[in-house]
């Protein structure tokens, strides 16, 4: 097979360019990355919408999960006349999926407990600090948060939903 001269010249020029770049990279390796000084640590959390109650991306995700469970429970109760006894009963209710049954939610662990006429959902962070508060929610539509201990009904309310 005969390769046109122009194409052959382009292939040779490209190979020369690649070889030149590779040789320069060997002569001038990239300096090792130095860690950021403490005063230049990760940027502060930027709220995702007006009224965002989260203090970090991890909290944003935990709150979104909490709202999804609360909405699914409301829809389940409306349809069946009682609340779900487990997270697996909520699958395909609202936007609750099979994957959401898993209690491992990244930086948080979800806890679910059915009550006679309701439920309790807790979101417990792996490390409790101001950017990873614990959350507590029930059928009343309120999400409570606490940065010092596991959240409960007496903790501060950060969101209220009237489905």
Give a quick precis of the structure.
This protein is α+β, with helices and mostly antiparallel strands and 163 residues long. The chain has two helices and six strands. It starts with a helix and ends with a strand.
Task: Tell me the fraction of residues in β-strands, as a range.
Answer: 15-25%
The biggest beta sheet reads: 6 strands, antiparallel
User: How are strands sequenced across the largest beta sheet?
Assistant: 1-2-3-4-5-6
Flag low-confidence runs.
Answer: none
Question: What does the model show?
Answer:
With 163 residues, the protein is α+β, with helices and mostly antiparallel strands. The chain has a domain at 57-160. Helix content is 29%, strand content 20%. It has helices at residues 5-27, 57-80, and strands spanning 104-105, 108-115, 118-125, 134-138, 142-146, 156-160. β2 and β3 (118-125) form a beta hairpin.
Q: What secondary-structure arrangement, pairings included, does this model have?
A:
Layout: H1 5-27, H2 57-80, E1 104-105, E2 108-115, E3 118-125, E4 134-138, E5 142-146, E6 156-160
Please describe the structure with a list of short key phrases separated by commas or semicolons.
163 residues, 6-stranded antiparallel β-sheet, 20% strand, elongated
